[in-house]
Fold these 4 entries.
Entry 1:
Amino acid sequence: MNSASAQRFLSELWDDSVVPELVEYIRIPNKSPAFDPDWQAHGYMEEVVRRFERWARGAGVRGLQLEVVRLPGRTPLIYMEVPGAGEDTVLLYGHLDKQPEMSGWREDLGPWKPVLDGDRLYGRGGADDGYAMFASLTAIRLLQEQGIPHARCVVIIEACEESGSFDLPFYIEALQERIGSPSLVICLDSGCGNYDQLWVTTSLRGLIGGVLEVEVMREGVHSGAASGIAPGCFRILRHLLERLEAAEDGRIVAPGFHVEIPAHRIAQARVAAAVLGDVARKFPFAQGVRPVTEDGAELILNTTWRPALAITGAGGLPPIANAGNVALPANSVKVSLRLPPGCDGGTASQALKALLERDPPYNARVRFTPDWAASGWNAPAEAPWLTQALESSSQAYFGKPAVYMGEGGTIPFMAMLGERFPDAQFVITGVLGPHSNAHGPNEFLHLPTAKRLTCCVCEVLAQHHRQTGA
């Protein structure tokens, strides 16, 4: 491709058409079903689907066929096909549902308040993952404008990813014949270590979670009377969690949640750490706080190939202003355990339940209720043509080499597709770089990276056809 004209064309298209549509998308609180059980009644998801459908039909992509597929009782899915040369198929993926609001937004920002500040478009969902459909279709349109052939493209935009994609397997099954067998899968829902080059995601962690509840009394009792007689439910909770995680350093000490890290992934982590320098600087640490280690490669492996526990919510604890001298009868926490690629989510979820519920201290009532389980994913070996395409596109549009690194998050769709299409090549990438803060406050889309990444997708599609369509 002519890289200079490609960048000009896409930059104008994004500024004139894509960014205004993303601004309107950010305004809509279309939270994923896990965070909005009444999503159908609220109608926000439907509003986004209608807007995306309208934009896609008017995007100027020749031959585009679009259908909003609706299975009973499930979130909708936008299914698109663009005819191409040759017999191969490329599957491009994104999602349109969002995480909930989260507190801590900057005073002038908000989750449903789009703010364009220089190169950053702030607001929930722009980077995770509203931009994906626009990047996919504008990449295809650019190829058409430059007269460069590409394979048949199938674009899938789901509405359940932030809830674990529990609806997606049913759609993939229903659309199996229409999708075919892709030889290349492109997913634009991942991260980047910086905004200076193309980052390719080589693996994704899995995730299991649930609610851990501890009950010791039927009702609260004066703490002066009960302390020393009734076991504290919070202490029991700590004891149970330490079966899983070492409090002094955060290591997951329970067996069954680790895998052996492949040597080439360790080597890639070292390269990525050298490129990034201070790996932890992208996080908003409070003054004086240090990361768990100063070894950048170990930090990358910790967040990509090792299990890790997070407590993301709590119940049974009154607000501090209302906390009297009462021994609490019960409490609960939301447990989130990231799993390394290769650790089966279903098996791990059962093991976690058994670990937390067995032999409860003081015979307290302990219950762990799993809510979801997703396995991780490790990319298959990369074909030489794809390695070359990624490198040349990064050099052409970023001016620096491509970097390979695992991601700590979970995209359930990848593990599913990896099993269904074992011979496919995968390109997993995204725009979630330093401080972009997906799921948290002050989320933003870095627009120059989104534009350059779109150009890289064009290059990969073009080289894929040269490889498979000749």
Entry 2:
Amino acid sequence: MNRRVALWALAVTSAWTVGSAQAQVKEGRRLEACREVLEELLSGEESIPRDLLDKAECVAVIPSAKKFALGFGGRYGKGAVTCRGRGERSWGAPLMISIGGGSFGLQIGGQAADYVFLVMNPKGIDYLLRSQFTLGADAAIAAGPLGRTGSAATDLRLRAEILSYSRTRGLFAGLSLEGAVVKQDKDGNQNLYGERVDSKRLLQEGAYPIPPQARGFVSVLENASPRAKSGG
């Protein structure tokens, strides 16, 4: 009997270990997609103005969000957000998030798009610490400017807590996703960190080390904007 119990316990442990490893690989693929989107949106002439990035408190990326509709529709996708780090780290470990809901007008069919959000002030971070919040209703959001001249829109930056960008079929644009709901992806964070994370300790206090799967994503920002500039 004891041998059967031992074999059963070994089988359960092995299954849990395999499942945990597969879950980490899944989140690693998500973070790699975030890295690719961010890297491409920070290059080229029509890109995020670097001085806006330097003033951003956090950056969120949602790769390949699906648009679904027959009539009025919405979007759904999963991604990650990272905020300015403390001490020697210029950017901290990411929080896994999802976006969904919202009505985006009459449309037919489905389409995937990538989204990047710049969180421009501490009030925007406060929303990220919630389990969920609605863009436009809770956090003020505006379409982010592109290119070298885009940074001239200082009034836009002062009004909005979040500036948003999109890429569809290789084309970048500023897009305001009012009505969409941003949530903390608790399962994704559990998969990545192996435990339930505290969003405040993660985003504001830098209490979690950057997981290996997230180093590529974070390094893009460390290279592009190693430290915040005053006036953000």
Entry 3:
Amino acid sequence: MIRVSFKALEIQKLYPLMISRGLMSSSENLFVFASDGQHTGIGELSPATGSSWTAAQGQSQLSAFSAEGIAQDPHSNYIRMREANIDPPAMAALDVALWDLLGKQANLPLYRMLGLPKSTVPTSVTIGINPADVTRERVPEILRSSGAKCLKIKLGSPQGRDHDKEHFAAAAESAKPFVAKLRVDANGGWTVSEAIMMCKWLSERGVDYVEQPLAEGNEEGLVELFKTRPLAIFVDESIRFSPDVIKVADRVDGINLKLMKCGGITEAIRIVATAKAFGLKTMIGCMSETSIAIAAGAAIGALFDHIDLDSHLNLNPDPASGAPIIDGVIVPTDRPGHGAALHA
């Protein structure tokens, strides 16, 4: 049987991240260890901005779930965790730990064990909502230090669309010397009429796609937006589990999954399969994760058209290692399992 243990750490961000739902400058993340007595896999819980998911609640749920020990099969454990209504980030922590353990037992990198190549898709790095002068200063710092080739600009400012435009213009101007591709994430901060207006405005400024233009729960509004969209529309908060893809497949161009939203690698693979069956593009994103969860995402990176695995690049410090950015790409290592290690 597999024994489970825990370690909680307060994680500080280098730059506080403001999105439409609020500001996050730190988070308490929970690291979950799954051991067979010889090998130990590690996973991570990271909460979302404005959510009720917490490290303490996740540990309580997983402690009860694994009190008598668990089998090491990620699939059967995932089903049992869903039936037990365990929070998705807590499910993700145990699911990733079990996959990491399997890779270590097989002495194989997780990406190879899953039959995947290493991804070659560059990651986006994120600039949060800021006053224009802060944006102008911060964007070059982020792009220079990371070597990233793509910039995701958070919009949906509570201060309105004029603020969105000022922030975007400052980010785009500052990114020009780096020839970075521009993407936008509104985190559900727009109304339908605002989204129609902003998508047209952004398309005229070379943006690749817009993510989550409307709030979760307003998926019906996507129908009108989708009809005359001038650029690709992705949804993020609207998708948690694979059946959610079916509900929006006729009104979006792609979906963004997060391990913390769906409960780990097991469901992430199902979501990708469902999205591809409907002809949709795929993206993987992140919460406030260290290199532990980022490495798990990178292990399945070859499944995605777009990648947004950058949270570990904005930590002060990252208490883990194993998810390096090389020529703009988050590359899995060749160590057994997902390849990341916790040092704190």
Entry 4:
Amino acid sequence: MASQKQNKDRDFSEKGFAAAAGAAEDPTANQAAPDSLAAGDGSAADQVEKLVSEKQDLQNTLVRRQADFENYRKRVERERQQERHRGAEQLIEQVLPVLDAFDLALSGQSGGASPEYRKGFEMIRAQLWNALAKQGLQPIEAVGKPFDPHLHHAIENVPTADKPEGTVIGEMQTGYLFHDRVLRPAMVRVATAPSN
């Protein structure tokens, strides 16, 4: 069996060698292919031009699809971020009365409570405020600023000559911004010109 395999291999190699030797001796054997390409040269050029045009169209389509996908990805990420902010905003709106209660309790206590009790209250209020500030909450500065209807809600006009007209002179309730958007306007007293 091994000898039969060797004979087949030898026959195959001899045939291959003979074919290669024949091709080397007859240089005109390979010239038929270029002649046939030359005969169909016009149609080949048309096909090449058509293929190049199709390739360019496909590349343009690919670039547009990639740009569309990138825009879609950015829009989805932006909407996801807005959803997160909306969820946090709703939670913070529910926590703001607790923060107001802490401020009211701390402002109402004078000397009646022990200093340790007051200090504990202040620490709890500070922890709550730090947690909210990390989420993007910030207070609206009102007192001493010009009245801004986008940030302030006027609940009282106070005639006075001490401050320019339209200046916020008192704050009844703190207002807050959440990621630079008004979450709650500040309730304020506004100076007006005194009547003669």
